[in-house]
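New to this. Please check this fold:
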Amino acid sequence: MRGPDSPLRGRGAYSLAEAARYASIHPNTVRSWFLGRSDGKGRGPILSADGAVVGSDRAISFLDLIEVAVAGRLRSSGVTMGTVRLAHDLLRHELQTSHPFAHSDIYTDGQRIFTRAFDSLGGERLHEVVSRQQYFPRIYELLDRVVYNHETRMASHWQIADGVRLDPTVSHGKPVIGDTGVTTYVASRMYRANQRDERLVADLLHIAEQDVLNAVRFEEDLGWSRAA
């Protein structure tokens, strides 16, 4: 997954279980979106992974992860699975990307999925992806902590929690503390190994005490169970 010739090099690398935890979605749901349902029901996978099969798992990229998070937000807001599936397929062609849900111009009103477009004069408009009709709905962005590349309009990094970010170009996309490059996993392990002394850990890692506490809180909120 992380070798020098890996297709995920510089693009982040996550297991399906990690994606499920970062996006707060049941692991079986995430697996079915990439691998189809194990009981044979349904219409097969919705999302396609950038990485290879790793044992019984599949490696996915940062953009795959953002697609998982957006699909989860759409479902939790009330959009049906059929609409999510159809919109993803249509948007792949319209936006000319294999990761349409990682594009900045995707919105929802809780029932429908919209995309933003510009006319020949540079005017901005919204249209509903499935019906193609133009609307002026009360909409909201799906992931307000995702930062998008200005030119490509694709997700570049995710400020997933206070003081914590996922950046596919840093530490294989694992959660790191701000711009330090220190992973939350390392900081939280050191915190537990040093009698929960955030001042000592901060000195050892050359980061702020609040950075240590942010890392610990993030790891605990995810419910990671790792041996000390």
Q: What stands out?
A: The chain has seven helices and ten strands. The longest strand covers residues 155-161. The longest helix spans residues 62-77. Confidence is low (pLDDT under 50) at residues 1-5, 224-228.
